[in-house]
Amino acid sequence: MFLNRKKVALNRFFQYIICMDIVTFWKRVKTLIRQQKTTQILTAQACGLPLNTLRGWMSKGLIPPVDDAYSLAEYLGVSLEYLISGRVKERAEQIEKVRVLLAKSSEKLKRYAVKPGLT
Hints:
The protein has 7 helices and no strands. By secondary structure, it is mainly alpha-helical. It has one domain: lambda repressor-like DNA-binding domains (434 Repressor (Amino-terminal Domain), Orthogonal Bundle), CATH 1.10.260. α3 (40-46) crosses α4 (51-60). The longest helix is centred in the C-terminal third of the chain and has 24 residues, at 89-112. The chain is elongated, with a radius of gyration of 22 Å.
C-alpha cells in the first residue's frame, strides 16, 4: 500500500517535471536561499549533497533526483510542488481555514446582534 502511494507521488512528480521549466525551478531555489539568509554551502550540507553537485545542477540546469529535490524543498520550508510549479498548497489550506473561521464568527455575531425594538 505504501509503495503504491509512493509510486503515485513519483508519477505525479515526473508529470510536473515534464511540464516544468528547470531554470525556474533553480531560480526558486536560489531565491529561497537568499530570502532565508542561508548559503548554497549550508543548503548542500543540510541536504546531504556535495556542494559541487548542487552547484553543477544549478549551473547546468539539470533536474535533480526526486529524493534530492524533496530534501531541498524540505530544507527550504516549501513543498516540492512549489519548487516545480510555483503553486503554494499550504497557502490555499490556510486561506480555507481563515474562510471557515470567518464564517463561524459571522454566525456567532448574528446570534448576539441586537434585535430591532430591543434595547
